[in-house]
Amino acid sequence: MSTVSVNCPCCSNLAYINCCGPFHTNKANPASPEAMMRSRYAAYVLHLIDYLVATTHAETRNLYRKNDIENWSKQNLWLKLEIISATKDKVEFKAYYQHDSKNFIHHENSTFKMENKRWYYLNGEYFN
Ligand SMILES: [Zn+2]
What is the architecture, at CATH level 2, of domain 16-127? Predict the structure, then answer.
């Protein structure tokens, strides 16, 4: 992930260094829930577990175990992110992934909360 031409894993069609890269390296903060959502999906793809923990809101961080996040990140092959809708604090998305050679879609409506001018993932409602 070191060259300008590498596409961002969040499926924005932008170069990683012009998209989620600066967020992952703490050079910038996502300015909207959608940008935060995209950067978190990209973090799953890239196994940036600390970023996923750090961008979960303090209110709910203890509900998500780091080991579980790491396993979910590493045991799946992440194929594609599709943003269905985004509002001022919610993002509905579908994350396409492969597990044990089978295809799955993780469909979630996530809630984000701002704290000290930064967006955080609060929780999610899952669809089956
Ligand atoms: Zn991105």
Answer: Roll (3.10)
